[in-house]
Amino acid sequence: MTDVVKPLTPAEELAMHVSGAMPGAVDNTVIAFDEVTLEAKADQIIPLLIFLRDDPRCQFQTLIDICGVDYPERVQRFDVVYHLLSMRKNKRIRIKIRTDETTPVSSAIPVYPAADWFERETFDMYGVLFNGHPDLRRLLTDYGFQGFPLRKDFPLTGHVEVRYDPEQQRVVYEPVKLPQAYRNFDFLSPWEGMNEILPGDEKAKG
Q: Is 148 inside a domain boundary?
């Protein structure tokens, strides 16, 4: 009795095709929810993007997004994630590369001009540097903003607060002030559980 060979899914075929054609660029492939994620080498991101855009079996000609993910416990703390769409093939693919705070990633603008503002946003929120970007400056935060808001170690309160000063008739920046009177933490976090009786709970015992 011969074993029945299960046919490959379209996602598995795509993953095998790309990893086989670009073995020096792709370290690993992951398939989840019928979508392919390629874990790639950062220094090979441009050749990989060109292949995914131009290969007849891929034709990922639309850049949907570029974003960052922060893992502060890693030496290369950032993932830079690219989402591509092939409208001709009705497929999506995700590419992940790793970098750190000082090593720039090659800009994808020569391959996908739409990468311009996506890379600026990733720089603004995470501090990821993109080599070859024609205008790498902050996009969402204000002038003179300090830090990178989506890093895991960025304080929830920020560094400065902004208000309008009627005497100076202009917007002023001041260090964040958190008076203790407004930070009265009496109880444990609800996610940690509560052993004490909260005020008012004693009425329920009757």
A: no
Alpha-carbon gap, residue 162 to 182, rounded angstroms = 19
Side chain identity, residue 58: C
| Residue 178 falls inside a structural domain | no
* Residue 105 domain boundaries: 10-140
Q: Provide the number of structural domains found in the chain.
A: 1
Q: What's this model's pTM, rounded to 2 decimal places?
A: 0.79
Strand partners, 91: 86
Q: How far is CA 49 from the centre of its chain?
A: 18
Give the start-end residues of each E strand in 15-156: 26-32, 35-40, 62-70, 78-86, 91-99, 105-106, 130-131
Q: For 34-70, what is each residue's pLDDT tens digit?
A: 899 999 999 999 999 999 999 999 999 999 999 999 9
Specify if 100 maps to a domain: yes
Matching residue, tokens 């990733």: 122
| Helix (H) or strand (E) segment spanning residue 10 | helix 10-21
Question: Which residue matches tokens 């015992």?
Answer: 205
Is residue 39 in a domain?
yes
